[in-house]
Write a structure and sequence with these properties.
The protein is an all-alpha fold. 78% of the residues lie in helices and 2% in strands. It has a two-stranded antiparallel ribbon. Strand 1 and strand 2 form a beta hairpin. The radius of gyration is 22 Å and the shape is flat. The chain starts with a helix and ends with a helix.
């Protein structure tokens, strides 16, 4: 059976994802990849691994992944990079999260059933947007309450 260009590209992306996230096996069958190892190099490691992850997303776009699927893929990378900002914890998180493997699964699901995955991805993106909106409104409200309490406290101070 002859593979077409799309299948070749998907195979290449799967191989890259495996090398980055799950190529090696550690104690107790725990899998890890170069992403976790390269990420141990301060600043440069995270830059290199993020560039590789963005390459996977760019290739997913060229394979026809829809915007909502690409956004979900980007969210996986953002989550990984947010944790990477935390010393030690971020490095440990890299061994667990495996954003590239998650992104390949999202891409394969999208390519297998684009309509269903587009709806699913849109719902997840909408849910994330809604949660962020609640956090924004909640923090705004808490800030207002704090400032109001501070103002009340300052005005209640009696000067002799």
């Amino acid at each position: 059976m002859v593979m077409n260009r799309r299948d070749d590209k998907l195979t290449h992306l799967k191989q890259l994802s495996t090398v980055l996230d799950s190529k090696f096996e550690g104690p107790f069958g725990f899998k890890f990849g170069l992403d976790a190892l390269i990420g141990l190099i301060p600043v440069l490691g995270d830059f290199v691994t993020s560039a590789m992850s963005l390459y996977i997303i760019a290739q997913a776009a060229s394979l026809g992944a829809g915007p909502s699927t690409l956004i979900r893929m980007a969210i996986n990378i953002v989550i990984e990079n947010l944790f990477d900002m935390l010393p030690v914890i971020g490095n440990l998180f890299d061994f667990y999260w495996k954003a590239n493997n998650k992104n390949i699964r999202l891409l394969e699901s999208h390519l297998a059933n684009p309509a269903r995955e587009t709806i699913k991805s849109r719902m997840i993106v909408a849910l994330i947007f809604f949660i962020l909106l609640i956090i924004l409104v909640g923090s705004g409200y808490l800030t207002f309450v704090f400032i109001e309490a501070l103002e009340h406290w300052i005005l209640s101070i009696k000067v002799d």
